[in-house]
């Protein structure tokens, strides 16, 4: 039977293998399972012999966290673009900034 620490190590390694094409859902399921494993580890405790495994997992976590931060930055950038687009459209559509009205009339004069 696999210990919780071995499961966490395997889970982290699996996510790192797929890091380039990982989707947010992959990170979500990873974090959920990771939290469950941590609860088991708190109940069982760690032995000094497991420190090497813990250090390796921490090293993998840095890579995973970096990828998560990258996804977060990309999402923030996309949200910023959407907000900017909405703001520009709102500015264009409002009357306060000379927006077009349906009742406007134009007169042409010939000289």
Automatic annotation (TrEMBL):
Keyword Chaperone found: yes
Main location: cytoplasm
Keywords on record: Bacterial flagellum biogenesis, Cell projection, Chaperone, Cilium, Cytoplasm, Flagellum
A family per Pfam: FliT
Compartments, record wording: Cytoplasm, Cytosol
InterPro entries assigned to the protein according to its UniProt record, in alphabetical order: FliT (IPR008622)
Family statement drawn from the similarity comment of this UniProt entry: Belongs to the bacillales FliT family.
UniProt function note: May act as an export chaperone for the filament capping protein FliD.
Name under which the protein is recorded: Flagellar protein FliT
Gene source species: Paenibacillus phyllosphaerae
């Amino acid at each position: 039977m696999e210990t919780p620490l071995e499961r966490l190590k395997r889970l982290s390694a699996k996510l790192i293998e797929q890091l380039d094409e990982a989707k947010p859902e992959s990170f979500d399921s990873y974090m959920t399972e990771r939290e469950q494993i941590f609860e088991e580890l708190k109940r069982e405790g760690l032995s000094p012999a497991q420190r090497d495994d813990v250090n390796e997992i921490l090293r993998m976590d840095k890579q995973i966290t970096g990828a998560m931060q990258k996804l977060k930055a990309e999402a923030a950038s996309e949200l910023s673009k959407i907000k900017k687009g909405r703001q520009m459209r709102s500015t264009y559509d409002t009357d306060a900034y000379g927006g077009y009205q349906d009742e406007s009339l134009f007169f042409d004069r010939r000289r």
